[in-house]
Amino acid sequence: MKLKLDLHPIFNRGGEIDRALRDIIDEAIRKRATEVEIIPGKGSGQLKKKVLRFLEQKEIKALYHRIDKDSKNHGRLFVYFRHK
Q1: Are 35 and 83 in contact (CB under 8 A)?
Q2: From residue 68, how far is each of 12, 14, 15, 41, 76 by CA, in Å?
Q3: Whole-number pLDDT of residue 42
Q4: Cα distance between residue 11 and residue 13, in whole Å
Q5: Structure confidence at residue 79 as a pLDDT band (50, 70, 90)
Q6: Number of H helices, E strands in the chain
Q7: Of 82, 74, 71, the residue nearest 39 (C-alpha)
Q8: In whole numbers, what is the pLDDT of the chain averaged over residues?
Q9: Any long-range contacts for 62-66 (C-beta under 8 Å, 24+ apart)?
Q10: Average pLDDT for 59-65
Q11: Average pLDDT over residues 20-40
């Protein structure tokens, strides 16, 4: 199962971005999804940096397996999960 989060509608609301990211990670764990696609968009890259900082937090990093950046579209990230 793959989940998708598009951050375009809330790009300028920091608290909502963090909440949306946490919600999608919690949903991926609950539904045992193997992949979450996060779309911060291309723009200036600030939103993508914010997303990466969020994902690098120790307590969040413990929840997923790895992150890949899309080589063909720099406005997209993939977060992969391993469920036991």
Answers
A1: no
A2: 24, 23, 24, 15, 9
A3: 84
A4: 6
A5: very high
A6: 3, 4
A7: 74
A8: 92
A9: 63/25, 63/29, 64/25, 64/28
A10: 95
A11: 96
Q: Count CB neighbours of 51 within 10 A.
A: 22
Q: Which amino acid is at 36?
A: V
- Identity (one letter) of the amino acid at 64? Y
Q: For the chain, what are the domain ranges?
A: 2-73
Instruction: Round to whole Å and give the CA distance between 46 and 40.
Output: 9
In the prediction, which pLDDT does 74 show? 87
- What is the pLDDT at residue 33? 96
Cα–Cα distances (Å) from 22 to 37, 41, 66, 71, 82, in that order, read: 13, 18, 16, 25, 17
